[in-house]
Amino acid sequence: MSSSAPTLATPEMIARYETVIGLEVHCQLATSTKIFCNCPIEFGSAPNTNVCPVCLGMPGALPVLSRHAVELAIQASLALNCQVRGASIFARKNYFYPDLPKGYQISQYDRPLSEHGWLDVVADGTPKRIGITRVHMEDDAGKSTHDGYRDSDDYTYVDLNRTGAPLIEIVSEPVMRSSEEAFQYLTEMKQILQYVGVSACDMEKGQLRCDANVSVRPRGQQELGTKAELKNLNSFRFVKQAIDYEVARQVALIESGEKIRQETRLYNVDLGETFAMRSKEQAHDYRYFPEPDLLPLKISDEWLSGVRAAMPELPTAKRKRFVEEFGLSEYDAQVLTQTRAMAEFYETVAGASGNPKLAAGWTSVELMSLLKADGKEIDQSPVPAVRLAELVSLIARGELTGKIAKDVLPKMYKTGDSAQAIVEREGLKAISDTGALEKIADEVIANNPKQVEQYRGGKTSVLAFFVGQLMKATRGQADPPTASEILKRKLG
Predict the structure, then answer these.
(1) CA–CA gap between residue 482 and residue 490 (Å, rounded)
(2) How far is CA 351 from CA 133, 181, 325, 378, in A?
(3) Residue 117 has pLDDT above 90, yes or no
(4) What is the radius of gyration, based on Cα positions, of the chain?
(5) Distance, CA of 205 to chain centre
(6) Which among 369, 427, 360, 429 has a CA at the least distance from the CA of 388?
């Protein structure tokens, strides 16, 4: 890698070119064991402990395909609108790395599990449908850790615990035209895979990894440019940054009269640059041939129908239903469906309280602010959904003001007590007696003659002052709209 920063194209140069992006996403399936053996999948185990003759590729050891892994792969395919094949074939993909003990990867090549899918995204305010070429199954390689120390000697440590973990590879069509489209595509895909329960998609644990194929071509040209593959990008933010850098690098080379080399490149996070790793392999370099130890994978109509019937509601459908059924805004529906756990929690609160709109704010704003401050997720909430629904119901019935409720919720969070118990114990019930409120309003008016004169002189904004004084006098237990109406009448 050069020590001096490479020359990059200017925005004016880049504007003369069209970017072409295709993504290959590797997702680890949420099984408890590996795809072809019973070795456990446990992140953080001591190196090289979760292995056996099958995943180590010992002579005579035979793979046995996990049914659970297949069903998760089918669910992912259906969620991504792919057509699942009735029969697919596993193949050997031959290459030699220290962390690939068999000397080949069991994958799928010319007959993958599913094809011809799509994903709808919105990038820069514009909706776009991104085609998905294929979803195929494969086993993972191990993990190499490179370290240099002791007089600059280099050491590579190989951990084979991950070898044989079940993966799906999701290959997009080369139809993305900006890093923002790629970012939104990955964000939407991750949410869908998590909703379905296909994978936890924890990028820190390597459960979701992305390779980006990037090329540029003069605007108006139909022929694709020479692509570079950006390998092993482990955050969506880095995907975006790496693509932007690579586009500027390629355009600069073309503008200077040089040619783009087809190669695999890595992204250096600290420098914000990509650098060459190796020349890019072609499919024939892997010498694919059908895996002789595995029969073709056949998916019957009955099996496919059963998997389809067990699918949960997907985020897009859930957002649409929340808007139509509960009357939420598009924004609120988006916030409340960020995760499946959040959506299910909210839906319980909405149903039990009978007030979906009020439930939306108390779930996404009030409760989430407490959870965020505590570093907790919605499924770790000390306030169960039914308890939050009780609080919302008290507010909706006028038995508790919103102001007092904001003091009650933290007490529920801390003590585990119900809203009703706290309200009764501390005497916080809303004052609904109109006569009592009128008497307090008379006292507030009598104690503030200057503000009365201002109001009657035309400065109606002073009404807020009177409402505030009345709320103070009732310790926030008066209903603000009712207090406002009483004060208007008496000042009028």
Answers:
(1) 13
(2) 40, 36, 11, 17
(3) yes
(4) 30
(5) 15
(6) 360
How far apart are the C-alpha atoms of 174 and 80, rounded to whole Å? 16
The whole-number average pLDDT for the span 236-254 is: 96
Tell me the mean pLDDT in the region 328-354.
Answer: 96
Burial letters for 309-339: b for 16+ Cβ neighbours within 10 Å, e otherwise?
Answer: eeeeebbeebbebbeeebebeeebbebbbeb
pLDDT classification of 283: cutoffs 50, 70, 90: low
Give pLDDT tens digits for 26-63: 999 999 999 999 999 999 999 999 999 999 999 999 99
> If residue 88 lies in a helix (H) or strand (E), which one and from where to where?
strand 87-88
Domains, the chain, ranges and CATH? 11-301 (no CATH), 313-426 (no CATH), 434-491 (1.10.10.410)
Task: Look up residue 347 and give its two tokens.
Answer: 């839906």
Please state, in angstroms and rounded to a whole number, the distance separating the CA atoms of residues 233 and 25.
10
**377 exposed, middle or buried (CB, 10 Å; 0-12, 13-18, 19+)?**
middle
Of residues 183, 156, 186, the one with CA closest to residue 170: 186
Beta bridge partners of 87: 298
Q: Are 42 and 50 in contact (CB under 8 A)?
A: yes
**Contact residues for 226 (Cβ-Cβ < 8 A; gap 6+):** 215, 259, 260, 261, 262
Residue 101 has pLDDT above 70, yes or no: yes
Would you give the end-to-end CA distance of the chain in angstroms? 79
Q: What is the DSSP string of 23-62?
A: EEEEEE---SB-SSS--B--TTPPTT-S--TTTTT-TT--
Looking at residue 432, what is its pLDDT? 63
From residue 19, alpha-carbon distances to 16, 256, 261 in Å are 10, 18, 16
- Asked if 119 contacts 185 with a C-beta cutoff of 8 angstroms, the reply is yes
Report yes or no: 245 and 237 within 8 Å, Cβ to Cβ: no
Q: Please say if the pLDDT value at position 257 is more than 80.
A: yes
φ and ψ at residue 67, rounded to 5 degrees: -65, -40
Contacts of 475 by beta carbon, 8 Å cutoff, 6+ apart: 404, 428
